[in-house]
Design brief:
- By secondary structure, this protein is α/β, with parallel strands linked by helices.
- The chain has eight helices and seven strands.
- The strands form two sheets. It has a five-stranded parallel beta sheet. A two-stranded parallel ribbon has the order 6-7.
- The radius of gyration is 16 Å and the shape is globular.
- The chain starts with a helix and ends with a helix.
- 36% of the residues are buried.
């Protein structure tokens, strides 16, 4: 769907805000955004923000976590996003220790807001790669970088059994629909179901915040204040 269609749908659903997070430049298989296309998209978002005043449009990206744990844009590009989801989309064959170290480094990057689909699993399609979630939770507590609950029914990642540890540590997650088209918005219900199964409550979920609160959170989390 087009950017404007996604915004219009979010408005029709009564959302106070929407986060735009297309794939980054390394994801050539998914038409990831080059640095130049990032500039064009952000300019388009600015225009849409003036047109649709009832919804806050946050500028984001799903940035690939490279094998060494770095993100795939330079600092000058990363600093222009409101939020960044760091995700692994390559080298799934790394062992658990290596993969954990890779993701931890990404979490330690001050620009990384959260980690996407943290085990990389596709239900009935691909087992997740080995990763130590307890270590990631420790890193989340230190850095403020969250780990998302991906609501796409093919992922449902984090697993509900792991969410109990997240809650015990008093950490937050963000329930993200991973919507690539208009119907994808409705996948959020699956994420809510998994969150409840993992005993999460309102205060454990980042995107129960209102738009003003989210604005404050994102600024603080990216250490821009």
């Amino acid at each position: 769907a087009s950017l404007e269609d996604m915004v219009k749908k979010a408005v029709s659903l009564g959302y106070e805000y929407i986060g735009i997070s297309d794939h980054s430049k390394s994801a050539t298989y998914a038409n990831g955004l080059s640095e130049e296309r990032v500039k064009k998209q952000q300019a388009e978002i600015d225009k849409l923000q003036k047109k649709y005043k009832t919804i806050r449009i946050f500028k984001g990206i799903e940035s690939d976590i490279l094998p060494d744990g770095s993100l795939d844009y330079p600092e000058k590009v990363l600093k222009n996003f409101d939020f960044i989801i760091g995700s692994v989309h390559s080298r799934f064959n790394m062992n658990e220790k290596e993969m954990t170290k890779r993701v931890v480094r990404a979490m330690e990057n001050p620009h990384t807001t959260m980690i996407g689909h943290v085990t990389g699993r596709l239900l009935l399609g691909r087992a997740g790669y080995g990763i130590d979630c307890s270590t990631l939770f420790e890193t989340s507590a230190k850095t403020g970088c969250l780990i998302e609950l991906n609501a796409n029914p093919h992922r449902l990642d984090l697993d509900w059994r792991v969410l109990k540890e997240l809650k015990k540590r008093k950490l937050k997650t963000s329930i993200n629909p991973d919507a690539h088209e208009l119907e994808g918005y409705f996948d959020i219900r699956y994420g809510i179901g998994i969150a409840r199964k993992g005993w999460l409550e309102h205060e454990d979920v980042l995107n129960t915040l209102n738009a003003a609160q989210m604005e404050v959170f994102l600024r603080k989390q990216s250490r821009k204040d």
